[in-house]
Structure formats: structure tokens, C-alpha cells
Amino acid sequence: MSENTVKTPRKRGQRRNNLEIPQRLLNRLTPSVLETPPSVPQEAQKPSQEVWTLDKLFNRYYSARQASGAAVRTLEDYSKHMNWFRRFLAGR
Asked: Residue 47: how many CB atoms within 10 A of its CB?
């Protein structure tokens, strides 16, 4: 069995990594690709004044979960629970 086909054991319920990158491609990466970008100067690190509403935060989370491959039922449950939470807040 070669290095590329060895399966790592997973815990029950753990998702499989869909990005199986062959070792031959990883070996071709140069150090410049792996380096972190230079830090931003201090004056550019001022905190932004953008207001994050509950809807914006939920939409951002929902999009991230959708992009990561969450099940359709899971995404439906997120929307359903968020609607319940909104109704709860409106009733207070």
C-alpha cells in the first residue's frame, strides 16, 4: 500500500476530509507559498466601526457551513432555529 492510500482512523461521526491532496503535490510547494503574509502596519489595524447585526452574523455562519458541506437537513434546522430565536426576541 502506498503513502497516498493509507486511511487514517476516524472517530465515530467524524467527517472525512474531502480535500485529499496527493503527497507529490505537497512536496512541490515552495517555502514562499507556505509563508504568512507580512504584518499590516499599526495605523492600518484600527478597529472597524461596522455594525454586525444578528442577521448578518447568521448569514455569515450559514454560508460558511454551506460551503463546508453541511447536510441539507442541518442547514434547514439552522434556519428553523434562527426563526424561533427571532420570534422569541420579538416577544420580549
From this structure: 5
